[in-house]
Automatic annotation (TrEMBL):
<feature type="transmembrane region" description="Helical">
    <location>
        <begin position="87"/>
        <end position="107"/>
    </location>
</feature>
<feature type="domain" description="ABC3 transporter permease C-terminal">
    <location>
        <begin position="90"/>
        <end position="200"/>
    </location>
</feature>
<feature type="transmembrane region" description="Helical">
    <location>
        <begin position="137"/>
        <end position="162"/>
    </location>
</feature>
<feature type="transmembrane region" description="Helical">
    <location>
        <begin position="253"/>
        <end position="273"/>
    </location>
</feature>
<dbReference type="Pfam" id="PF02687">
    <property type="entry name" value="FtsX"/>
</dbReference>
<dbReference type="InterPro" id="IPR003838">
    <property type="entry name" value="ABC3_permease_C"/>
</dbReference>
<dbReference type="InterPro" id="IPR038766">
    <property type="entry name" value="Membrane_comp_ABC_pdt"/>
</dbReference>
<keyword id="KW-0812">Transmembrane</keyword>
<feature type="transmembrane region" description="Helical">
    <location>
        <begin position="183"/>
        <end position="201"/>
    </location>
</feature>
<protein>
    <recommendedName>
        <fullName>ABC3 transporter permease C-terminal domain-containing protein</fullName>
    </recommendedName>
</protein>
<dbReference type="GO" id="GO:0005886">
    <property type="term" value="C:plasma membrane"/>
</dbReference>
<keyword id="KW-1133">Transmembrane helix</keyword>
<keyword id="KW-0472">Membrane</keyword>
<keyword id="KW-1003">Cell membrane</keyword>
Length: 299
């Protein structure tokens, strides 16, 4: 039930306003209110058509028809749930991208350090597919542990979000309820981490053991980039910056994943601080400037 008291308050004032229930005898005998039923609850799928029939049937006795979208109490609560759902999806998407970035770069770093060990195992008869599955299990283990930890910590975050909404809504009970969707999301995150590890482990695919052993580090050799064709611009760039540009443009996947991590992390920081600052500014603008008065007279 949404707050319907005075508009002067930002949140409900339980000590000043509330709801009460009285019997029909009290309404009739003490309050002198005739027991006329003027509200009918309907469960319908097409309220527009029902409204037309009611208008033609009741004519001047028709007052109004409220749906879940037009009822301010229900619509406000439903809209708030939709806003929280959109924010949760946005944050989940960014965190999944960061998980892919961390898993991919970690596996590539491990393989770079164990390149000669991998070549030795290949020479002993281990196939590339089996070694790839081995490193994929690393992604499965880490992703699975992270998913389980997220499911365990979810009630704490849900309780925090639910408590933040209690001052704005008045409900009979506040309970945390989950569907099976979080389980599917946890499974999807685990498989995504496993896939990222699998793709990162494809460094020796198609190579013989001797070729993999001579290959050494998985770091790619530097090569010319498209920016070097502009001699006038390239010659003005310091040598250290040339090295950095050539290395970044030559490793497109790592550069893209790094950009995803930076953009995602900065977006989370900006959203966290920006939401608070925006709400503070809105409250200050509304109740510090627009509703600035010393006395109020209701006529």
């Amino acid at each position: 039930m949404y707050y319907t008291g005075s508009n002067d308050f930002i949140s409900p004032q339980a000590q000043n306003y509330g709801y009460g229930y009285v019997s029909q005898d009290t309404l009739t005998n003490q309050l002198q209110v005739p027991p006329t039923q003027n509200v009918v609850d309907l469960q319908i799928k097409h309220p527009e058509q029902v409204e037309k029939h009611l208008r033609s049937l009741l004519q001047n006795r028709y007052l109004t028809l409220q749906t879940r979208k037009s009822n301010i109490g229900i619509a406000t609560a439903v809209d708030r749930v939709g806003q929280i759902r959109k924010l949760s999806l946005l944050f989940s998407f960014i965190f999944i991208l960061l998980a892919i970035l961390a898993m991919y770069t970690t596996i590539r770093k491990v393989i770079d350090q164990q390149q000669q060990d991998l070549a030795t195992l290949q020479s002993l008869g281990y196939r590339n597919g089996r070694l790839t599955v081995y490193y994929s299990m690393y992604g499965f283990l880490v992703g699975g542990l992270g998913a389980v930890g997220g499911l365990i910590a979810a009630p704490l975050l849900s309780t925090f979000v639910m408590n933040s909404q209690k001052p704005m809504f008045t409900l009979l009970s506040w309970q945390i309820a989950y569907t099976t969707m979080p389980l599917y999301v946890a499974l999807g995150v685990t498989l995504i981490c496993m896939l990222a590890a699998y793709l990162a482990a494809q460094v020796n695919h198609g190579l013989l053991p001797a070729q993999a052993f001579r290959k050494g580090s998985t770091a790619q050799a530097g090569h010319r980039v498209w920016l070097e064709h502009w001699n006038s611009l390239w010659s003005r760039i310091p040598f250290g910056n040339r090295w950095s540009i050539r290395d970044n443009l030559g490793n497109k996947i790592q550069t893209a994943m790094g950009l995803v991590g930076i953009i995602g992390g900065l977006a989370l920081v900006m959203t966290g601080f920006g939401t608070k600052n925006s709400m503070d500014h809105q409250v200050e603008q509304t109740y510090g400037h627009e509703y600035a008065y010393t006395q109020k007279i209701n006529v």
